[in-house]
Specification:
This is LHFPL tetraspan subfamily member 4b. The protein is of the alpha+beta class. 58% of the residues lie in helices and 7% in strands. A five-stranded antiparallel sheet has the order 4-3-2-1-5.
Length: 229
Amino acid sequence: MSVSPALADLSRLYQTEFVRSARAVGVLWAVCTLCFAIIQVVVLVQPSWIGTADTRHQGAGPAPPSGTLGLFEVCVESDWPVTDCRGGLSSLSPLPSFQSVAVLVGVSLWAVWTSVLCLCLFRFCSAATVYKICAWLQLTAGFCLALACLLFPDSWESPEMRALCGDSVGSFSPGNCSVHWAYILAILGVLDAAILATLAFVLANRQDALLPPDAKEGEGGVGASGGPS
């Protein structure tokens, strides 16, 4: 049964609007992927995974140390205006107790920045293929970051933690310290990776359905219709 010209034009109009919506969502997904990659850098380099709680010292003895701790660096407040920090990312040597956590965060960082670089493939490959590649990379980044967040509290029983948080520190027990914003940001990064990967899979599976019928015949139309470019 033949379709009336008016109905065919209306169907093509709806299809075009769907393609534009998919392109807008793809641009938003690409921007969020770049933001997630920047967050990964901040999580890796910041010495604010855990720190001393804001409590007033009472007693005649010396005040306990106050500072923060990260994967590569321990910073302790001193009488000088500048915080006394030991270690750093420049040495490429994480704290001994957090080496496995640093490696997992590093792999997660590599995966998410690789997905950012893969955005250039929209000019050469089909959009569905690029979305799937990025989705698997983001899943890898999220898995490694989640594993790092789970292993980090298990490594609290270390000399660096004891010197900063007291002798009551232990695995999953921060002693006189509490988690700081970098660790919370890493946990939020796991959720961000899951959302971005899911959205990438959805966009990949919707590419063929969103394309007009005449554009499905060539691969050039597939690559240009759903990408964030």
